[in-house]
Every structure is written in C-alpha cells, then in structure tokens.
Automatic annotation (TrEMBL), chains A, B:
It comes from the Bacteria. Pfam families: Nitroreductase. This is Nitroreductase domain-containing protein. The keyword NADP applies. The lineage of its organism: Bacteria, Bacillati, Bacillota, Bacilli, Bacillales. The keyword RNA-binding does not apply.
C-alpha cells in the first residue's frame, strides 16, 4: 500500500481545529490540486470562494446550523457549481448557449465537476497532515449564503469545506460492505437480497456505536437512514436551483 | 511537495490502455478508496458497477459515442447515483422516505456523494501507476445503458471510468488561472473583469494548441466552450431523471 492510498483510507472528518491558519502556499496548492481534477469536456464549471472575513465566517457557521468549526478552522472554502462564466462566454462569442446552461445535463455536469475538484482538494490537504470537514449544512439557507457571498445566477454554493490542523482524534464509521456497493455486470435490485445485506451491515454499525459509547448508543444504519430521510429537509432546493436558472429543461 | 500531491498534479486522461487487466486486489483497493470518501450524513448514495463482460463493454463503448477505450482497458467502472437502497430501507423500517428521495436536495446529494467517491478511486488508481479516463459519454443514451445494466428506479448511471496501464503519453491542458477560479470572501461577477480574465486565458489555451499541433490548430477556450455549449446535447436528461423518480420536488 502506497502513502496516497494510506492517506485516502485514513480519512475521517475533523470537527475541531487548532487556531493555526493555512499559509497562502498551502491554500494555493490545495486549489491547484482541485483544478487538476478531470473536467467534463474541459468545461471547468466551478468557482471556489475562500472565506477569510471573520464576520462572514461567523455568519456562515450560523447559517449552516451553528457548526462552530465553520468559523474556527485553518481555512474555509465554499465550493460553487458555476455556469455564470459560460454565460459571459456566450455573450462574448455571440452564441446562444442558454438552453445548454439551463439543461439538467449541464446542471449535473457542474455538480460533478465541482465535487471532483473538491475531493482532490481534500486528498491534497490530508496528505499535508491537515484535517477536513465537508459542510453540507451550507445548503440549509442558500438564499442567505447567496446574499452574503454575492453569488450571481447560474451559480450554486454546493458545500463548504473546513480545513485545518486537527485538534481532536476522530473515528471512521464503517462503510457498507464492499459487495453491497460494488457489483459486477449488472445492478442486482432484488429486495430480499438487499434486505439481508442491510441486516448484515446493521450489525456492524450497531457494534460500532456500542463500542464507541460503552454500550449506551443503540443504532443501526437502516434506523439512522430512515430517521434522517423521513425528515423533509431543504425542500426549497428545487425552487432555489430554478431561480438560479439551472436544471430548468 | 509530497508524492500524493505529485500524483494529483500529474493527472491527465489516458485514452489508450495496455491489455493487462487489473487484479482483483487492485479493483478492491480502488473501491475501498472510493468508499472512504466523505458521504453526506453517512448516506452512501452510490453503487459502482464493474463491467467485465466483453459484449457489455463493447455495447457501452458504442453507446458512449464509439470510444474504443470503453471496451479496451484494464477495468471499466460505472458510477451510479443510488437512492434505491434507501427506498428499501424505508420499506423495512416502515417510514415514509419517498418525499426525501424524490427531492432535488437528495438528487444533488447523490450526485455529489458519487463524484467524491469516484475521485478517490481515480487518485488511488493513479497512485498505483494506472491511468484513467472519465466517460461522460455514458450519458448519451441512458435508457439503453439502464436496460443493459438492469438499473432500477432511483438510480442514475452518472459516468464511466476506464482504468488501466497507460499505452500513450498525454498532455495536460492548462487550467483556468488560479485567481479566476479562486476568489476571496465574495463572488466577483463583474462581466468586464471576467472578459479580461478570459482573454488572458484564451492566449494560454491558444498557445497550448499551437505548440501541440505545430501551429495547425487555432482554438481558444471561449471559442471551444461556445461551440460546445451552443450544441444542445442530452436534452432528454430532465425527462430521464424524472422517470427514475429523482429531482421531482
């Protein structure tokens, strides 16, 4: 096993960071690594906003559900799916690019491009001994995030990324067994098989929580997921995305 | 610069592979690395299908726009955004998870989760000396891909990933200058500024193509992008995604 694979497999989210800020060089290396990811037809459909302003960070922490590590970290990035630059390109070149930019296909492309770039940033940061936490909570109140960061149409802030020197030890939650997630030649959608698989995995997850809490926490993956998914969160998203003129046709 | 960052920055897509197949151990390491990526609220919303069947690979190559490296490689993965497993969880636990599963928010989560996992797979593969190429062309004819791989509702094949031992030297296209993609504290949407930035980048891209083709190819990024975006491709995607019962509300 090489050191890159060791870094990848050692990943766990860090939610408490030392006060030490990242250097400009570290930030630039992380961004260059993000940019080095593959991009669909060279479209480069993302923008990364580094938030250094203390008040803005505090406000983002609040908007993300009062997560203190959004404000307290070595650096905070906001990863945005971005087709605004391409609208400008259409104007410069005098070509009608709008139907493309408003398509579900290009919405998907922009999300995928942004996520590929972000994960490169993460691996780069972790390889330098830094810790990271993705902040999906950034999507709780996107209208306010949009106003705070002056986000134009055709841009969607997808998630935050807190980076810094770890100030806690964290565990890694056991993932789905490999053969659940990886199949060969076809998707086996047999519900009985999936149910058996989930029972197997529930035992693993239950053990993990039991051991970690000295027997206090009783939880399974299906229990946790059904709780989470029976809550209807961020149901404004469709309207928000459409107001940003994406995913329209 | 550490070796992980070197690997990330050295990335270029490879479109010609040696015949040597990946070993089971290599495939499993790649999948475990994919699974090690962060996942939104532990949802793990993806399935990876490894395609080894020669006829299926040939068919996928054809469906992806006759790209031979879809059939000829060391291994071929199809990365699918997947909320089907979570539908089964709702049934097992007797909870109504359907509004969540059909929301734009969870559609986005499943795309992001899948892309984060895929990029981990890519970095792991490249760290082993393998080359990769993402196959967005897999989305050209998804109804046929769906039938071929028996994909159920709530699952969307997002892209393919060809992996193998490189049999060609390839160049890396120069990315947008860092300060275009990375901004601090707010999004600068000033169109004049963006236009100037694009002119600067156009020169870089034009030089790249000129040098690479002995002066034959004249192209700019804005030219290339406006050509690509003025074509309306995969406009069936919205309908396909909705038929898969995702991104509905």
């Amino acid at each position: 096993m090489n050191s890159t694979i060791e870094t990848i497999l050692a990943h766990r989210s860090v939610r408490k960071f030392k006060k030490q800020p990242l250097t400009t060089e570290q930030i630039e290396t992380i961004v260059r690594c993000a940019q080095s990811a593959s991009t669909s037809s060279f479209i480069q459909a993302y923008t990364i906003i580094g938030v250094t302003d203390k008040e803005k960070k505090q406000k983002l922490a609040e908007l993300s559900g009062n997560q203190p590590y959004v404000a307290e970290n070595g650096h905070f990035f906001v990863f945005c799916a971005d087709l605004y630059r391409h609208e400008v390109i259409g104007e410069i070149e005098g070509r009608d690019v709008i139907p493309s930019l408003e398509s579900t296909e290009k919405f998907m492309v922009s999300l995928i491009d942004t996520a590929l770039a972000a994960q490169n940033a993460v691996i780069a940061a972790e390889s330098m001994g830094l810790g990271i936490c993705y902040i999906g909570g950034l999507r709780n109140r996107l209208e306010e995030v949009k106003a705070l960061l002056q986000i134009p149409e055709r841009v969607i802030p997808l998630f935050g990324l807190a980076v810094g020197y770890p100030d806690q030890e964290t565990d890694k939650k056991p993932r789905l067994p490999l053969h659940h997630v990886y199949q060969e030649n076809l998707y086996n959608s047999d519900k009985e098989k999936i149910q058996k698989d989930l029972e197997e995995y529930n035992k693993v997850v239950a053990n993990y929580y039991k051991e970690r809490t000295g027997g206090v926490r009783e939880d399974t993956w299906t229990g946790q997921m059904s709780n989470m998914l029976s809550r209807r969160v961020r149901m404004y998203m469709k309207e928000f995305v459409e107001k940003q003129k994406m995913d329209l046709r």
